[in-house]
Amino acid sequence: MAEEMRVVLRNYGKINPLKIEDYLSVGGYEALKKARTMTKKAVIEEVIQSKLRGRGGAGFNTGQKWAFAHETQDDQKYVICNADEGEPGTYKDRMLMENDPHAIFEGMAICGYAIGANKGYVYCRGEYPHLITILKTAIYQAKQRCILEDFDIEVRTGAGAFVCGEETALLESIEGHRGEPRIRPPFPTQKGLWQKPTVVNNVETLANIPVIIDKGAAHFAAIGAPTYPGTKILTLSGDVNNRTFFEVPTNTTIREVIFEFGDGILGDRKFKAVQIGGASGAFIAANDLDTQISFDAMSAINSTLGSGAVYVLDETRDIIDVTTRIARFFEHESCGKCAPCREGTARLHELMWKLNSGRGSAKDIALLKKLGRVMSITCLCGLGQAAPTAILTTIERFSDDYEAKLM
Amino acid sequence: MVNLTIDGIKTSVPDGSTILQAAQKIGIHIPTLCAHPDRIVKSNCRICVCEVEGSRLLQTACSQPVFEGMVVKTRSPKVIEARQIILELILSNHPQDCLNCIRNVNCELQHLAKEYCIRENPFKLKTKGLPKDYSTPAIFRDPNKCVLCRRCVETCTVIQGVGALGLENRGYHTMIVPSMGKNLGDSPCVMCGQCIHACPVGAIGEVEYIDELMEAIADPNTIVVTQIAPAVRVAIGEEVGMKTGEMPMNKLITALRQIGFDYVLHTNFTADLTIMEEGHELLQRLTTGGILPMFTSCSPGWINFCETYYPDLLDNLSTCKSPQQMFGALLKTYWADKMNIDAKKIFSVSIMPCTAKKYEAFRPEMNASGYQDVDIVLTTRELGRLLRLCEIDFDKVEPSEFDPWMGDYTGAAVIFGASGGVMEAALRTVYEVVMQEELKDVNFTATRGFQGIKEAEVDLNGTVVKVAIANGLSNARKLMDQVRAGESPYHFIEIMACPGGCIGGGGQPITRSNIKREERIASIYIEDEQCAIRKSHENPEIKMVYEEFLHEPLGHKSHELLHTHYHAKNKRLI
Hints:
The complex is a heterodimer of chains A (about 400) and B (about 575). Chain A contains 18 helices and 11 strands. Helices cover about 45% and strands about 15% of the residues of chain A. In chain A, helix 3 (about 40-50) packs across helix 6 (about 100-115) and helix 15 (about 360-380) packs across helix 17. Chain A has about 400 residues and is α/β, with parallel strands linked by helices. Chain B has a 5-stranded mixed sheet, with helices on both faces. In chain B, strands 11-10-13-14 form a 4-stranded parallel sheet, sandwiched between helices. Chain B has a 4-stranded mixed sheet with strand order 12-17-16-15. In chain B, helix 7 crosses helix 13 (about 380-390). The chains are: A alpha/beta (about 400), B alpha/beta (about 575).
C-alpha cells in the first residue's frame, strides 16, 4: 500500500497560517538562519546536490538556476515566487499559500541570500483574491520580527491570464506590460525583472527549500525517484471515488495514485484515461498506468507530470468532447504574440469542434496532427508548445474514439 | 569568434551574432516576416525557424544567438513543413485580394507565399471583416490585412515617439489599433507615414488621389500645374527600375508633361524662398530678442507632432509655411498673374515624398490665394504608379526644362530633402546676409548625415549661433524636452519628422532598411554639387519675385501669403 509523505505539506493543518509563532514553534525559519551561517556557494551547492527540480512543470534543476543567477554580476537581483497557478485542476499552490505561507517566504529568503537578491515578489493568481490577505499578513508578521532581515517581499497579483504563469510573461506582467512571453535567451537568471538577474521558482519548489537546508541534500535526494527526487503534491479530480490532494514520493505510480489514493473509479465503471499536468498534459491510457509520476518516467511515455493535476475519465466519457473543450481553453488563453499559437490554437479548436460535432473527416485528423506537430516545436513559449498535447496524445492513444465520430 | 555549421557549410562569426546574421554572411537566405534590419528582434512570426542540433524545438534564426560548435539546418523538410504551416495559418485570415491591394507585387507576405509554394490552404479562409479606416486624408488602415508583426507599433512608439498605435485584445482576437481603439484621425497620429514603410503587407497605406488627378487632366477647362519636391527625384527611379538618384530631372519633367500636366514647376523654388523668409525671421528673432530657439516648419508631420505634444512651444515654430504651401499660395497669385491665367482654373498638384503633406494641403488656413492653395498631393509612390500607368519609357523620353517663373532653383533648395539640409541652406544665406561677404566654402558638413541629432556652431560677427538638427520624432522629443525645461543651448533647431529627412518620407518608395535612406542622402548632395548656384538668395527667379511682387522678406505680402499660425490640437490622448 503506497503511503503519503508530507514534506512540503509538513505543517498542513498543524499551524495557524496567520500566526507566525505557530510556524516558529515547529522550527520555522531555522533553515534560513542556518543558510545564513553557510557561504552562498555552499547553499547553492546543497540545493544542486539535492537534485530538486522545478515543480512548476519544466523540471529544471533548481540549484543550477540559482547558480546562474548567482554568477551574473549585478547590483540588483530578484527572487520571484510563481504563484500564478493556472492549470485547470491544480490547486497545490493554493493549499500551500493558504496553510503555510512562511514556508514559501523562507524558501524565497534562502534563495535571496544565495543569489544576492534583497527583493522578492510573490506573483499571485488573480483568481485567488482571498490569499492576498493571508500572504500580506504573513509578510507583515515576518517583517515585524525582522526575520527576513534585509530581504523584502511584495505581493503582486495577475489579472487572470493563464500565460502569465509562463515565467517571462509573468515578468512582463509585473513590469506592467501585456502578459506576453519574452524571447530566450537571455534567460531570466541573466536578464529578468527590469532586466536584472532573477530567479523565478514555483511555490511548491520554494516550500521544499527549508527542508533541504535543514535536513541536508542527501536526505532529500534519497526520497522518491533518483533523477527527480522528493515528493509531489497531486490534485486528483474527475471520475474517482476520492477527489482530493495528497503528497507522495515521486516513485509512486499512476495506478497507485488513481486506485489507492483515489480509491478507484466511481461506481462500477472502468478506467478510460487520465490526463496529468492540467490542460497542457497528455492523456494516458490504461497500458501506461504503471509509470512512475517522476519527470523522466513520464517523459519516457511521451507525457509530462506538469503541475501535478490528475484528471481521471471513466469509460462513459466522451474523450473527443473533453479534448475539444481543452482546445477551446487554449484558444482563449493564447496571448496572440506569436503566429503559430495565435492562429494555431484557434484552428485546433475549429478542427476539434468539427470532429466533435460529427462533421470531421480523416483529413481533418491528419491536419490536426500536422498542425499540432508544428506548433509543439515552433511556438514562442510553453503555452503554444503544449496546446496541441491533449489532441496529439488522444489521437495517438484513443484513435477508435476519433474514428467513431467521423462523418 | 564563434565557429558553427549551417547547412553543412562551416563559418565563423562574431560572438553574439544570430543564426540569421551568420547565414547571411555565407549567402544562405532565411525567410523572415516580422524581422526588420533597423528594428528590435521580435520573433513573432516564427517564419525564420531552423533546426539546431540538440534542440527539440526549432529556433528562430532572427533571435537565436550562435554558439561554438552549433549545427544548424535551415532548409530541412521539418523546417519547410513548419514554415509552410505557419504561412498557411497567417494566410488563412488574410484577405485574398492581392490583385487590387496597394502592395501588390511589393508585399512580403505575398513573396513568401510564392517562395513556399502555398497552393490550397488547408485552413478555411476566415477574414476578420473589420471596417477600413479612412479617417485621415493621408493614411488609411485596413486592419483585416494586418499580420500582427508589430513593426508599425515599434516604429510609431520608439522611432517616432508618437504612440498612436497599440495592441488590443489577445490571442486570435489581437488587433493593432490607434490609441484607445479610436480612428486614426482621432488618435495622436501625426501622419508621418513611417508605419507604411514598416508594414510588410497592405495593412497601412497612403490615401491615393490618382482618380482626382485624372479627372482634372481630362477636363479641358482645368489647367493642371504640378510642383515636385527635391526628395522625389532621388527616389522615383526606384519605382521604375532605376537605381537611387539615377532619374534625370529633365526627363522626369517630360514624363510629367506626357502624363498630362500642363505646367511643370519645382517646389525647390519655394524652398529657396523659404530660406529667404526663414533666414530673415531667424535674424529678426536674434536681433530683436524674439523667442528662441526657433524651430523650422517645413515638415508637416513635425508640425502635427508639435501641435499635439508640445502645444506650449508653438511660438518657437517659424511662422513660415512649408515650401509646398508657399508654392501653392504663389501659384494662384503671382504665377497666375505672370502667366495671365485665371487662378480659378488652376488645379494645383504637388508631388511629395510625404504623407503628412496631404493633410497639410487640406488645412483650412491654407487658402491665402483665395482658393485652396494646393488641391491635391501625390506621393512619390503614386507618381511611380502614374508613370507605370502611362507606360512611360524613359529610354525614349527626351529631356525638357521647367516652365518659367517658379522652376529655377539652387543647390540650397535641393538639400532640403535630407536631414540638415534646411539648416545648411539657411546658414549659407544667413552668413552672407550678416557678414556681407562671400561664403568661401558653402559645405557645412557638420549638419549632414543620418545620425538622429546633430549640432553645429557658426560665428556671425562675434555672435556664435548654435544650431541643432533632429530627424525622427523621438529625437525631436529629446530636443523639445530640453527647450521645455529651459535648458536648450540652441538658437535654431531643424526638425524633420522622418528618419533621414524627406528622402525617408512616408510617401517615398517602400524603404526596407536605413541603408536605402543613406543612399538617397548621398545622391541629394551629389545634385547640390552639380548646381551652378548653391545659395538661395542668388536664385534669379527669387530675386525677381521679390523685385516684382513680394518686395522684401517678411514684408506685407509675405505675411499674407507665405506665413501662417499654429493651433494646439488639444487631443485627448488618454
